[in-house]
Amino acid sequence: NKEKAPPEKAGLVFLVIQFAFAGSGSRRAIQASAGVSNSGESLFIRSFDGGETWKPIFPPAEEDDFPGGADITDFEFHPARTAEIFIATNNAGLWMSPDLGIHWRRLEGSSVFLGSESRVYAVALSKSEPSVIVASAASPAGNVIARSEDYGENFKEIYIVPKSVGVARAIAIDPKYSDHIFLGMSDGALLESGDGAKTWTVRTRFGDSPLRILQDASRPASFLIVMDSGTIQTTNDFGKTWEKVSMGEGNESTGSFFIPQPDGESIKAPNFFELPFRFRKDVYDFAPNPADFSEFVAITRRGIIRSSDGGKAWRGVETILDAGDTAKGAVALLPERPESILFALGADFYRSDDGGIRWKKSALPGAVSRLVTHSAQSGVIFGILK
Q1: Is 258 exposed, middle or buried (0-12, 13-18, 19+ CB in 10 A)?
Q2: Helix %, strand %, coil % of the chain (to 5)
C-alpha cells in the first residue's frame, strides 16, 4: 500500500562520489598503516579524528584473495543510517559496512550478476524504504539494473539497458517514492522511471557523460549533475530545465582587484577566477559542502578556490603553499562548518578551520587522490590512497 506521487512532485536525495581504486589483501593494509609505499596500489582509508590519524579500511584485511585492480566505481552513505557505507567495485562486487568501515560484507544474495568478481557501476539507497537498494551491474546481456527489497539478501533484475546507450554510472532514488528512479547514462542521457523501472523516459540528453548527481537537501527540486568533462549542470524543477553552472564565466567575480602603482594609477590584476573551470586539466578536484550544495571548493593549477553562491562567483583561498605547488591533489569541505577547508597533496594533509588564515599539517599513509567528508559527522573523513 505504498503511496505514489507523480515524478514532478517528488525530489531526489542522492550523493554519488566517483573514485579510482586498486588494491588487494592485508599486505597493503599493513604497509599503509606503517606509512610505507604500496608500490602504486591503492587503499581506502578513514580518519575518525578530523585528519589527525588514518587507518586503511578497504579492502578488508581478512580478504587475502581480494582481486587486484578493483576500482571503486561508487561510494554512498545510507540516507537514513549514516554509519552504513556501500562500495561498488569494477571487479570485486558490491560491499557494505554497517560501522563506517570497521567490518565489511559482500552483497550477493541469489543474484547471478553480483558476485566476487562482478563489475558494479553504481549503487543507490532508498530513504523512504531503507531496505531497498538499486545497483547497476554488468552481465552477459549488458548493463543490468537490479533491485533488492530485503537489504541486499536478494536482488531482482528490473531493467536491462540497451547496449546502444552505454551503461548507468549514476543512480538516484526519490527520497519519498522508491519507485521513482533516475539513471545517468554514459552516453549522456538522463533516464527517469516513475513506476519502479517498468517504463522509462529520457528526461534530458546531455552532450557529456554524467559522473555524479548531487542534490540540495534543503531544496528537493534542485540538484546538480557533474559531467565527465568537469562542467556542471543544474536544475531547479526536477530536471525539466537545465542550466550550466557559469563558474564565473563572463563576469567580474570577487577575485578581480586593482593593484596601486607608484604614479597613483592602478592596473587591473588578471582575474583567473572568471574562468576557473575553462579546461578540465585546470581543475584537479572539486567538492561541495555535504550539508549545503551552494558551497563549493576546488583545487586548481592556480591554487584553491571556493564559491558560496552555487558557482556564480569564486575567490581564492590563502594557503601555506605557492599556487604552483598544487599539482593535482584533493580537496573537501566539512558539513555545517563552511570555514573549515581540507586538502591533500601527496602524503601531506592540510586543514584550516578559519577559512585559510591558519593551517595545520599532518601526515597521510601515502599519496591521496580524493577526500570525502561524512555527511553528518565532521570528524569522519575518507580518502583514496594511491
Answers
A1: exposed
A2: 5, 40, 55
Cell numbers standing for residue 253: 567575480
Residues 27-34 have a mean pLDDT of 30
Query: Which of 185, 222, 220 lies closest to 200, judged by CA?
Result: 185
What are the grid coordinates assigned to 19, written together?
573514485
Grid coordinates standing for 139?
A: 552481465
What is the DSSP-derived secondary structure letter of residue 17? B
**Grid cell 543490468 — which residue?**
144
User: In sequence order, what are the beta bridge partners of 306?
Assistant: 297, 315
Identity of residue 300: T
Average pLDDT, the chain: 75
231, 250 contact by CB (below 8 A):
no
What is the Rg, in whole angstroms, of the alpha carbon atoms belonging to the chain? 21
Instruction: Assess whether the previous peptide bond of 175 is cis (omega < 30° from 0).
Output: no
Dig out the grid coordinates for 141 from the structure: 546481456
Model confidence at 141, pLDDT cuts 50, 70, 90, reads confident
Taking residue 68's Cβ as centre, other Cβ atoms within 10 Å add up to 13
